[in-house]
Design goal:
single chain; mainly beta; twelve-stranded mixed β-sheet
């Protein structure tokens, strides 16, 4: 009887543990894009681009990263960039937005993956191998582990870079981009906020 109770207890614990692990691994990763409505303690309210209010529960020790405007002319071979793009009729992807990473962040998220900012969009975090200038804007050859992608940057494409920021910069009216985990229908949990400085709207 004792062994039966022990076995049942272990089985119950195992099922509970597996359920907990499943809930963590299955947590939905979401992106929040919009402007700050308020920050009360560690609760951030954001008016998303689609007009909905999103509550972001910021984790203990959360940090802010600043986003500031840059110029396509600042991009040079050897730089590490993140470019959201989508297919074009030319066969070369066209950029939707460009992030120039600081040297200390080289290698962050390296690779090519689907991105939700445009139909059939992708995000390529890679090193600039070379750049060819044309009337349609520069076309960059990006290289990453296991692949290469050419992306044209049309005139007017938002270009930004990252810098330091403080929690005080996360204030009403500031543009933000947040990647976190959905905890319920209206709340997202996150440990970092990318906030636009000097009126910059994070284009990511």
């Amino acid at each position: 009887m004792h062994r039966k109770r022990l076995t049942t207890g272990v089985l119950t614990l195992t099922i509970a543990t597996l359920a907990a692990l499943h809930s963590v691994s299955a947590a939905e990763r979401v992106k929040v894009r919009g402007t700050v409505e308020s920050l009360d303690g560690d609760t951030l309210k954001v008016k998303s681009r689609d007009g909905n209010e999103v509550k972001v529960a910021l984790k203990s020790g959360w940090n802010a990263t600043g986003v500031v405007k840059a110029d396509v002319a600042d991009i040079k071979p050897g730089d590490f960039v993140g470019i959201a793009s989508q297919p074009t009729d030319s066969g070369i992807n066209g950029a939707i937005e460009v992030v120039i990473f600081p040297a200390a962040m080289k290698g962050t998220g390296e690779g090519d993956r689907p991105w939700d900012s445009a139909p059939n969009g992708s995000m390529t975090n890679a090193t600039v191998a070379n750049a060819v200038t044309s009337v349609n804007g520069p076309t960059l050859t990006l290289t990453y582990k296991g692949g290469e992608r050419k992306i044209n940057i049309p005139k007017g494409t938002p270009v930004v870079t990252l810098t330091s920021a403080t929690k005080a910069d996360v204030k009403p009216g500031a543009g933000v981009f947040i990647t976190g985990e959905r905890t319920d229908d209206s709340t997202v949990s996150a440990d970092r906020v990318a906030v636009g400085l000097n009126g910059t709207m994070p284009p990511m």
